[in-house]
Design goal:
Order of helices and strands: HHEEHEEEEEEEEEHHHHHH
Radius of gyration: 23 Å
Strand content: 15-25%
Number of strands: 11
Low-confidence stretches: none
Length: 285
Amino acid sequence: MKNDEFQACLQAEVENFKQSIATDEGDWIIKGFIDIFERVYTITVDTKVVSKVLEILLYPQLEAFASKYDLTLELPRFQNHYPDATFICKDGTKFALDIKSTIRKTSTTVNMMTLGAFTGYFRNRDGSQASEKNITYPYSDYSGHFVLGVIYSQNKDASDERKSFSITELGNISSVIYGFDFFVQPKFRIATGSPGSGNTKNIGSCTNIQQLKSGSGPFHALGEDVFDDYWMYYLTEDMAKKEDASRPYNNLSSYLEYKNRFMDRIDLSPAAMAKLAEDEEQSNE
């Protein structure tokens, strides 16, 4: 299975995922947590809690997808390890899938998602001790890195953590989120040139819904190689200070300017490239 085939197959399947997490009216099927006395405690709107419960709901669907396409689904062995799911083909080809959820802000925008670290395993891609680099397998072992995105709207009036309900009152509990939308895209196609919010060393995502669903972020036209190069050498202000260095670039415009700074001095003609290869070969003798 190739990268584009994996994406197409999973995208076709996620169209049905909504049925496993939402009612016919579009409300989340999760109402809260239940104890042994059958008391129901309403779930919080906290995004970390919501995203984790969404993951739990989606894992059986991903297992069914893996079974349908003769793939092995492997979950991370340690908490907070990348990715959320590893799919392995019979020939050993691996696909990384991260489940990312975000709140719909308007009809066209969402909150920014973080798409994984740009340090650690992202830069040490062939690390043999994967467990020490917060990743299931070395980054370079994966044929493709994908994001299963879940967009939802938030019902802030539905959550009141001071209340509890009996199991018979389940139908009276409002859902804290609703209006789900899914997409599957390669990570680089929905990434931006900015880190996630705060001082995080994570890659930030597009916030335009159409860009997320179509995979038409700024790196789409530039390609995955440019995405990799950009983030492998990106320095935050704190990183630059620690290395006592200046930041070579801080966005895509300054990155391209930085990369092109010396291009007018370089002769890329076939004759020049052949001479360069000859010189390198002699240097290695």
